[in-house]
Predict the 3D structure of the following.
Amino acid sequence: MPLKFVLSWDRYISHVGDPAMQILASNSFRWLEVHFPSDDTAPNPGVMVRIKGRLPLLRCLEIGTELGRQDLFEDAPALISIGGTPDPDWQLPYDQLTKLNLNYCQGDVAIPILQRCTNVQHAELDNIIDWEGQDRVTMPNMRSMVITASNDEEVIFTCNQLRLPQLDFLVLQNDVYVTREPPLDEAGYDILIERFFTDCSCITTFKMKGLRVSDLQLIRILACLPQLRKLSIRNLVWYVPNAQSYSLQPSNRTISSQFIQRLTVKQDAEELVIVPKLTELTLASLPRDFDARSFVDMIFSRWRPRNGGPATFDDDCLCTVKVGLKFKDDSDVAQEFSRLEPLQRLGFGFNAYEKI
């Protein structure tokens, strides 16, 4: 029977785990998924040496600790997924990997690993810092990428180090959802668009959570994604000064009226339609800044006339929508959602509106 396990015990009593590790090592031919999550769980190198060349089933490996020798997993014919903070000097079968998850490491550690993972199709990069001065990496087979960082600058640095010409699925997310900082300056997003998004025209799914992106900046990004079908935006809550009350009040600078109106398809308009293939839209915003009327108009505008008749919808137009509005209490929920009643009455597959 294949084995899946997470090795975890306190470093001060690691000797207690040696007998257990010896049993596990003697059964390494049954290992399927193994996690060594942190330095506190470093196993005895003398025990680990026994697994070399005896890993015929191992598919998923996550490493966050020193394992003694660097060639323990060199001969693992079924290994397709690596995660954690592996040492770039480790001898791993990089060319057979299809999934990669790196977290909390320096750019000079991440870059050599990424350069070797030429066949990886799915990757998650979580809080990779200090990319500056590193070479840009082209990953020709990458299909899915999730980038998480503690601030927008790190998200941009990470994107700018990558060239992903076949990317289909992209998530950019910040660990923070509330801020008093202004949107990132235009120069930062100019670089992001010119170096990253212009090479990612194949993206069909894009999710953005908690970034300091203004409405105009987001519009420019979407203009680079002509194949986009699924879009999800979780608005960052900005607290801006209120001149009348001399206090800070929540504001929305991303999912604005201007943003919604730019998504609207205008007949006989000279400007090009952005994301013309959009079929699924998820927005999470604040009710005080959410332009419900323009939103309803935008949805209707993306239905296509059929045979000269009235506008309708099918699988090739925007027919799945989720709206989340963040309230402090339930008092205004009914009033806000009543503005979206024209969509509710249609009953054509919209998911229930959510309070977030």
In short: The longest strand covers residues 99-106. Residues 223-253+260-356 form one domain.
